[in-house]
Amino acid sequence: MKDEVFELPDKRTLGYALYGPLEGRPVIYFHGTPSSRSEPSLLNAFGINVEALLTRYHLLLIAVDRPGIGLSAFNPNGSFNSFADDVAHLLRFLKIEKTTVLCWSGGGPFALAIANRYPPIIQAVNIIAGFSLPFSTPGVFKSMHANKYYFGAARRIPSVLRFFMNLVVRKGAKKPFPQWLSGLPDVDHTLLTNPRAFKTLSASTLKEACRQGSKGAVYEAGLYFQDYGYKLNEIIQPVHFWWGTSDNAVTRLHAEAVEHQVPKAVMHYQKDEGHLSIYVSYFEEIIQTIAALE
Question: What whole-number percentage of the chain has pLDDT above 90?
């Protein structure tokens, strides 16, 4: 992984990390929430050498921090479309005329927004268990299990959530919440009982997301209740969507919305996989899929 910082036209910084061979075919990566450009590195803790994998398939992964997260400056007027514009500036700087997008979890709306806004540049979208519907959509927020407490706090009591997140980052998370509290399915909870994996996950997601404090992460969490800036039936590119049937963080509603509304949706339903387990277990298959795209 190699960290870089790009200066946007309005003088804000945009942080990003490079994974894989520099001469490889570029793939833009949008991380989950709260998370950061360091997210792909957590695969190493599960025995997946992400650099070797990307080299094998000749792909260059460009993972971008969103505003106020990691190395990127906060944008008080940030939205899904404004981040799409930020990334378009970065692509022009990198002289990338066409690319594919890969994302996990909370990166879903950002990936779909840039596809909708820049169809000549974005050739395909690959979503791993990502949000596709605003949380204000009937039934979506209610179905979110334990995840709804984080996002609900971001919407209703953001200052309290910022305080709590800063405290957790300062003290350091040493082990995952008990399963009865987190509500994670067995397949995900088991993965996090590995101390090295949990430490890496915490460092690359929450800790790096709050490098500048939690303002950016909490602001972003509130965005998911707003209009995403696109309609699913307007996405003209192929959209590959991976989802596990045990995932209770991003529920089936998001997968079914893509399946039934995106004109070129390709669904990859995986029985008994969870939110984290599908990322770990199917990452190589996903990279193979991207490498095979024309």
Answer: 84
pTM: 0.95
Residue 288 belongs to what H/E stretch?
helix 275-292
Q: Which of 28, 234, 261 is nearest to 122 (CA)?
A: 28
String of DSSP letters for 39-51: GGGGGGGGT--HH
Q: Cα(215)–Cα(162) distance, rounded to whole angstroms? A: 6
Quote the number of domains for the chain: 1
Q: State both tokens at 236.
A: 């003209």
Report how far residue 65's alpha carbon sits from residue 63's, in angstroms, rounded to the nearest whole number: 7
Q: What would the pLDDT profile of 170-179 be if each residue is shown by its tens digit?
A: 877 667 666 7
Q: Which residue has the higher pLDDT, 237 or 180?
A: 237
The SS3 of residue 127 is strand
**Contact call for residues 189 and 234 (beta carbons, < 8 A):** no
The tens digit of pLDDT for each residue in 216-240 reads 999 999 999 999 999 999 999 999 9
Q: Which strand (E) or helix (H) includes residue 202?
A: helix 195-202
> Is the predicted pLDDT of residue 156 greater than 80, yes or no?
yes
Residue-level pLDDT at 176: 67
Residue 47 domain boundaries: 2-292
Nearest CA to 12 among 212, 161, 169, 155? 212
How many Cα atoms within 13 Å fall on the side-chain side of residue 121? 24
Q: What is the dihedral of CA 175, 180, 186, 189, to 10 degrees?
A: -10
Write the pLDDT tens digit of every residue in 80-113.
999 999 999 999 999 999 999 999 999 999 999 9
Taking CA atoms, 111 is separated from 72, 108, 212, 232, in Å, by 18, 5, 24, 12
The mean per-residue pLDDT over the stretch 66-71 comes to: 97
Neighbour-count burial of 150, counting CB atoms closer than 10 A to its CB (0-12 exposed, 13-18 middle, 19+ buried): middle
As a whole number of angstroms, the distance between CA 276 and CA 135 comes to 21
User: Which CATH number covers residue 21?
Assistant: 3.40.50.1820
